[in-house]
Design goal:
315 residues, mainly alpha, MetI-like fold, 2 domains, 77% helix
Length: 315
């Protein structure tokens, strides 16, 4: 197990290196010159634009720009925002807790809805419960998150006045108000993922419930709840854990549309504003941090495999 963990940790640096090359190269394909955006009203003055390009090293070749940026990364410096004139690491650390809270709440909703619905659908196959669970799953997959968010704002906030329509309050400032401002966007995000988890849980459970050891457990006279939860579910969790890890990584990368609809100042909104303003250092920093989170979540997912299935620990 130690060797496996070491090998997975060794994959992180080359993965981030490849991601850095891709994100640095792709952003050069964006139309427009960042110097003109930063210059603002002075963009008509060629000397001002040339000075900005020189200050931002945009007058150098792309390989030289990349090597300069990579050198800063190796010293733990993500660079400075061209527009805000603040360290990128500081901006990311300001927005990451917001997105993390939203993502974790959405993930809790997804698990609480999707996994039980998938189990119930598999156990009650071809019954009304199965049809209902599949209908809910189809609804979650079909409804766009931004449309559902707008509808919830109109009904829950405007008509009923139960929750704030938008904004965000930090947990450290007022935890109750913070939950009130994030519960709707978290549900909107979690609803879509719950549908995916439900379908995969159902598929995995149907496959496991047909195995010989499940029939043996039933033949021993064990309660159906014990057979389903202890014997079947544990062996059906591996594909669900894999999918859940990927979906959690997607949530942590910043739910762009949902954050825009509910005016949540997370990573998604930060990267959209940065793309609009051609603030390349912020884009690069957010993508690298997101890639690191993805790698870390995949590593945790692999470790969960070992806990769920003892046969993998012996391999």
């Amino acid at each position: 197990m130690r060797g496996y963990l070491t090998s997975r940790l060794a994959q992180i640096p080359p993965t981030l290196f490849i991601v850095s090359i891709i994100v640095f190269g792709l952003q050069k394909l964006l139309p427009g010159d960042p110097a003109f955006v930063i210059a603002g009203e002075s963009a008509g003055d060629p000397q001002v634009v040339a000075a900005i390009r020189h200050q931002l090293l945009l007058d150098r070749s792309v390989p030289e720009q990349y090597l300069h940026w990579l050198g800063q990364l190796l010293h733990g410096n993500l660079g400075y925002s061209w527009r805000l004139q603040e360290p990128v690491s500081q901006l990311v650390m300001q927005k990451l807790p917001v997105t993390a809270q939203l993502a974790l709440m959405a993930f809790v909703f997804a698990i609480a809805i999707g996994v039980p619905a998938g189990i119930l659908s598999a156990v009650k196959r071809n019954t009304a419960w199965d049809w209902l669970a599949n209908a809910v799953g189809l609804f979650g997959l079909s409804i766009p998150t931004f449309w559902l968010g707008i509808v919830m704002i109109l009904i829950v906030s405007v008509d009923l006045g139960w929750l704030p329509p938008s904004g965000y309050v930090p947990l450290t400032q007022d935890w109750l108000r913070s939950l009130a401002t994030t519960i709707m966007p978290a549900f909107v995000l979690g609803n879509a993922i719950a549908a995916i988890l439900m379908r995969h849980t159902r598929s995995a459970m149907l496959n496991v419930l047909q195995q010989d050891y499940v029939r043996t457990a039933r033949a021993k006279g064990l309660r159906e709840s014990v057979v389903v939860l202890r014997h079947a579910l544990r062996n059906a969790l591996i594909p669900v854990v894999t999918l859940g890890g990927l979906q959690l990584g997607t949530l942590l990368s910043g739910a762009v549309l949902t954050e825009q609809v509910f005016s949540v100042p997370g990573l998604g909104k930060l990267i959209v504003d940065s793309v609009y303003n051609r603030d390349f250092p912020v884009i690069q920093g957010v993508v690298l941090v997101t890639a690191l989170l993805y790698v870390a979540i995949n590593l945790i997912t692999d470790l969960l495999y070992l806990l769920i299935n003892p046969r993998l620990r012996a391999a």
